[in-house]
Amino acid sequence: MLFRRRKPAGLRERTRELFWPRKGFLRPLRYVKMRILRLTASPHAVAMGVAAGVFVSWTPFIGVHFIMAFVLAYFLSGNMVAAALGTAAFGNPLTYPFIWAATWEIGHLLLMREDAMSGQSVDLMELFHKLRFTELWKPVLEPMLIGAIPPAAISSVVLYILTFYTVKGFQVRRRAKLMERARLHLARPTQDIPTV
Fold first, then answer.
1. Same domain, yes or no, for 70 and 108?
2. Which InterPro entries would you find in this protein's record (predicted)?
């Protein structure tokens, strides 16, 4: 096996890595950052893709975030891979509780209504099982969707600007490094090859 450990991990080590990864929690974020930086598209396309992914991550339609990000990136001339990476990095199981709580509160503030569900209980599993979208829209989805618009717009614009200038700087530095390497390669004296 190519990537097998020499000494298999024991139960204690596997349990520890489940709660505290050996390479740390920031490694996946560094990977996503480097993957975004190394895309060969223009800085605008990469930044627009990331912004589209971040924007749709705020919406409560959790099963179709990638599809929505692809459609939005397509219409805004964004990069599809960057849209997928932006969606996965921003909207994930660690961030969804915070996103949902924020959109819920902002939605109720914008709609200027009291908490419609105070004193009431809604069986979400039953509504999802029976697909009663009309009963789910007013108390849950409408405030979350309305509440998602301001933070989605702000965060996607901020991340567009950050991503654009970061990718642009990375591509300029990379291009300069490749040009210097090519210049050194061309300046190297060629060895005489004996002719037969």
1. no
2. DUF2062 (IPR018639)
Question: pLDDT tens digit string along 73-132?
Answer: 999 999 999 999 889 888 888 888 898 888 888 888 888 766 545 556 656 566 666 666
Quick one: pLDDT band at residue 32, thresholds 50, 70, 90?
confident
Mapped onto helix, strand or coil, the DSSP state of residue 72 is: helix
Is 69 a member of any domain? yes
Same domain flag for 75 and 129: no
* Nearest Cα residue to 148 out of 105, 88, 93, 89: 105
Tokens (6 digits) for 188: 């190297």
Domain that holds residue 51: 28-92
Q: Is position 171 within any domain?
A: no
Q: How many domains does the chain have?
A: 2
**Residue 101 shares a structural domain with residue 64:** no
Distance CA 118, CA 104 (A): 13
d(C-alpha 67, C-alpha 75), whole Å = 13
CA distance 43 to 78: 10
If you average pLDDT over every residue of the chain, what do you get? Answer: 82
